[in-house]
Design brief:
333 residues, 2 domains, alpha+beta
């Protein structure tokens, strides 16, 4: 409902918003939806590049991967929408290429992004799962912020409701109250980000665990929220909502794998980040993903202390971890 005034009665009778869907910059019209998506993408990239090292990756790995994944995500987001809404384009196929007119589906974008990660991983010979793990945080950030583009466009809302947190859309025909499903999904993603960041990021036990948690979390929430929406894509003329079905299947599959690995108890030492750190100076604590904070100097001090201890027969004990650059004189002290 473009142009409708937005109200939230629980925030007061005088709370009314009527934001424009576009703005003018340097004489050109731009849409707020695209600007919000771009902002979410930027924040997501900053987060992922910052924490890439915890997964054995570099910021260059992330940027290179995005060069492949982003175009594929956009193409697949559009294809997903067109395939399940083909009646709108059947008589004018050129409309398929007019992305500026709208018509992108987040699940298509996610699938395209995963395809991009797969291609990049195969080419660079980097395991796919660590990339998906750290990328899951970026998806939650991008989705949480991007949903506010739907708010600006007055779209992706749900069915009519009388709940206290209802959203009102005021048109010339009057005010109608709906479920603010864009807000539901945004808050669900924010909550998921907080949980994964503070409770699972440093405690992961195997590569792919964070990604499975993301898939299960988002799938569960989306399956419920999608059932409230009025603009869902349906499975080829049936009454089945495509995204709701995909969300439910992904939740069940991810939850099943999480349970499987919980009982299998994978060895955290086999994660990619540890194999990478064997060749570097930093060491990691298996099981929680934290970088060992002991410096080489503090370890050397421990070695010197050990070297000064006597064995049971009264002879001085030798340090087992003398640094290669220690002189003979230092060893004898």
């Amino acid at each position: 409902m473009p142009g409708a005034t937005i109200t939230f009665p629980m925030l007061g009778e005088n709370f009314r918003l009527n934001p424009s869907s576009s703005y003018i910059l340097f004489g050109h019209e731009f849409y707020w939806y695209g600007a919000i998506i771009a902002f979410g993408f930027l924040i997501a990239v900053l987060y992922v590049t910052h924490y890439a090292g915890e997964y054995g990756l570099t910021s260059d790995n992330i940027i290179d991967m995005l060069i492949i994944s982003v175009p594929l995500a956009v193409v697949c987001a559009r294809l997903y929408y067109v395939i399940f809404n083909f009646s709108e384009y059947r008589d004018n196929l050129l409309e398929i290429f007019k992305i500026r007119s709208g018509g992108l589906a987040i699940y298509g974008g996610i699938l395209g992004g995963i395809l991009g990660v797969f291609i990049y991983s195969r080419v660079k010979k980097i395991p796919m799962l660590p990339v998906l793990d750290v990328g899951s945080f970026g998806l939650l950030i991008g989705q949480a912020i991007g949903r506010w583009g739907n708010f600006i466009n007055r779209e992706a809302f749900g069915s009519e409701t009388a709940l206290p947190w209802k959203m009102g859309l005021v048109t010339k025909y009057g005010t109608t109250y709906y479920h603010p499903t864009f807000l539901y999904e945004s808050l669900w993603n924010v909550l998921g980000l907080i949980i994964l960041h503070f409770f699972f990021r440093k405690k992961r036990k195997y590569d792919g665990q964070i990604f499975l948690l993301y898939v299960a979390w988002y799938g569960f929430g989306r399956a419920i929220i999608e059932g409230l929406r009025t603009d869902s894509l349906y499975l080829f003329g049936t009454g089945i909502r495509v995204s709701q079905l995909l969300a439910a299947i992904s939740f069940v599959a991810a939850a099943g794998l999480l349970l499987y690995f919980r009982f299998k108890k994978p060895d955290p030492a086999k994660m990619y980040v540890y194999s990478k750190n064997k060749a570097g100076a930093a060491t990691m604590k298996p099981g929680n993903g934290e970088i060992d904070g002991d410096s080489s100097d503090s370890k050397a001090g421990e070695n010197n202390v050990n070297a000064g201890e006597d064995t049971a027969d009264g002879t001085p004990a030798e340090s087992e971890n003398v640094r290669p650059d220690d002189s003979e004189e230092n060893r004898q002290q």
